[in-house]
Amino acid sequence: xxxxxxxxxxxxxxxxxxxxxxxxxxxxxxxxxxxxxxxxxxxxxxxxxxxxxxxxxxxxxxxxxxxxxxxxxxxxxxxxxxxxxxxxxxxxxxxxxxxxxxxxxxxxxxxxxxxxxxxxxxxxxxxx
Length: 128
Known about the structure:
Elements: E1 4-10, E2 13-21, E3 26-28, E4 31-32, H1 33-36, H2 40-53, E5 59-66, H3 70-88, H4 93-99
Parallel strand pairs: 3-5
Antiparallel strand pairs: 1-2, 2-5, 3-4
């Protein structure tokens, strides 16, 4: 089997993954996934597509993550893994799409406007 390469993005996080046949190890920036993502909830988010299809122990995943925070990185990684699974076998697509894993979440931080303290916040109004 050849190496499958995909990209996932969320907020300002970018996940580039390389999926190969193996024993089910996920390596994130040369560290184990449970060591990189401190909470069990984020590890669960990352492994959702693999557990849904039931092939968590069949493939090794090497990940390069950059940008954003931990939750954005975890969701970017989930999208990249989902895209790799669809590339691997097109039959997985309807199951993954029904769970919403194939949709790129477009929400990003709104830019700060000039003359304001934040994007939408205004300074306190004084009538007199």
